[in-house]
Specification:
- The protein is an alpha/beta fold.
- Helices cover 49% and strands 11% of the residues.
- It folds into two domains: 202 residues, P-loop containing nucleotide triphosphate hydrolases (Rossmann fold, 3-Layer(aba) Sandwich), CATH 3.40.50; 235 residues, no CATH class.
- The protein has 16 helices and nine strands.
- Strand 5, helix 6 and strand 6 form a beta-alpha-beta unit.
- It is elongated and about 95 Å long.
- It starts with 7 loop residues before the first strand and ends with a helix.
């Protein structure tokens, strides 16, 4: 391959060593099939990473070697003439029964592809492994050895490193199921060391991957902004023929109102998951805390959102900015229940846990009948809980390896003590309050003027969440 061509790398190794996992994580795509059953890959599969519709880098997921010792013997007997060694082998063995997988594996090497040899460093090296590595050395293509340990035990790691140094141009430790975005870039950067002529093409591909990542972050910030806006103007209503039916409809309408807010959040979450190509991850099925909790669960509202003192100040600003009395903001509860220290009484604590979101309103329709409605949401804690949940979702997926296909997130109680909104500076909370006020009051020009500044707050927070999960 010359410097103007697309970088192509054949992912090679013993069956069930994690080849498909490495490809999935390197390409950032969890749609690549990963099976614990050895030998599932029987044909070469080319997986491309594209930017603007153009292939930037390509990986070939290959079958495992089936006859490495016999192949090595043939290569050693014919190694006096390295030119066309793979082509001559393919010509001789293409129609020999039992060598179908081996010929399939060697095809991209005959076309000049680089080699990424994947081995499980947690197990001992066997004679078959040595035969496979020696075959690749004799082929002579630029090659890197990747140690993808499938166990925490490092007993055999040094032995693998020693053998890799004998057979490969470079060695890299890479846990495909735990690697974050930075690890992915580091591996791609290391590939530049195995063949200097490939550097320009690889540099361009890496630059595009980083640029693509920035785009995902910005689009995620836009989705979070959009979700906040939709949630704060959301309303539900029902028509009644008779005012006496109000009590029958009340509970149904409140339930529908909450369900509508849940749906707005879930659609945004789905879009962010798709943005990062996490098509298999199902956050809601997990038994881990916070994100698997309902938007309105007591635990969610205890852990996320602002502290009592922060909320006191923000609620005051929200009431003044939106022209809404604090008694309305707090569902008729007097603002005096807040103490100077920011402590919250039991009644307000219940309110701030999401049990009171908006008041029901009943009005007569000129042509007859009544309309009962609920919304928009007036709970001062709600927007901060909503934002915190979006930030935590981003933290969960931004550095999650795509080879992890267990469908559940890996959050723990220790990982989350308080959402990021409570960690914002007073200035950032003030910007957020201004945005909330503009949304609630319908002041589009004001909202548009605040959006760039608030979008930067969202972006900065996403970067912090991203870095804290590495």
């Amino acid at each position: 391959m010359n410097e103007t061509e697309i970088p192509v790398f054949a992912i090679i190794g013993h069956p069930n060593e994690g080849k498909s996992s490495v490809v999935s994580t390197l390409t950032g795509d969890d749609r690549i099939s990963i099976s614990p059953t050895p030998g599932e890959t029987i044909r070469n599969e080319r997986i491309s990473w594209k930017a603007h519709g153009k292939i930037m880098i390509q990986f070939v997921d290959t079958p495992g070697f089936q006859n490495p010792k016999r192949i090595l013997k043939w290569f050693e007997e014919n190694s006096d003439d390295h030119e066309g060694l793979v082509s001559r082998f393919l010509k001789e063995f293409s129609y020999v029964p039992g060598f179908e997988h081996d010929c399939e594996l060697l095809k991209p090497l005959g076309e000049g592809a680089g080699v990424i040899f994947v081995a499980d460093g947690s197990r001992p090296i066997g004679k078959t492994d040595l035969a496979e590595m020696e075959i690749l050395r004799l082929v002579g293509n630029p090659r890197m050895g990747v140690i993808n340990s499938k166990s925490e035990r490092p007993d055999h790691l040094e032995n693998w490193k020693r053998e890799f140094r004998k057979h490969f141009n470079a060695t890299f430790l890479f846990d495909a199921c735990k690697a974050n975005f930075r690890n992915r870039i580091e591996l791609l950067e290391s590939l530049k060391s195995i063949e200097q002529n490939w550097n320009p093409a690889l540099e361009k591909a890496i630059s595009q991957i980083i640029s693509d990542r920035d785009g995902k972050r910005r689009r995620s910030a836009d989705l979070i902004f959009e979700t906040l806006e939709k949630s704060l103007v959301y309303k539900k209503s029902r028509l009644l023929a008779d005012e006496s039916k109000t009590e029958f409809v009340k509970e149904e309408l409140e339930t529908a109102f909450r369900e509508g807010l849940r749906s707005i959040e879930e659609r945004a979450w789905d879009r962010i998951l798709r943005e990062f190509s996490h098509t298999r991850l199902q956050v809601k099925v997990s038994h881990d805390p916070i994100l698997a909790e309902d938007l309105f669960s007591e635990q969610t509202w205890q852990v996320l959102g602002l502290t009592g003192k922060q909320l006191t100040l923000s609620a005051a600003a929200l009431g003044a900015g939106a022209g809404v009395g604090l008694d309305v903001l707090f569902g008729g509860i007097s603002f005096g229940v807040f103490t100077a220290s920011g402590a919250i009484t039991g009644a307000v604590a219940a309110l701030l846990k999401g049990r009171s979101l908006a008041k029901l309103k009943l009005k007569r329709i000129p042509l007859g009948g009544y309309e009962i409605s609920i919304g928009p949401n007036q709970n001062p804690q709600f927007p901060f809980v909503l934002l915190d949940r979006a930030f935590l979702l981003y933290q969960l997926i931004a550095n999650r390896a795509h080879a992890r296909q267990d469908k559940e997130p890996d959050l723990t109680d220790e990982a989350i003590k308080m959402g990021p909104c409570s960690q914002w500076s007073k200035e950032r909370r003030s910007i957020c309050v201004g945005v909330i006020n503009a949304i609630k009051s319908g002041k589009r020009k004001k909202l548009d003027s605040l959006r760039p500044e608030f979008s930067q707050v969202l972006l900065d927070t996403l970067i912090v969440m991203e870095e804290s999960s590495t």
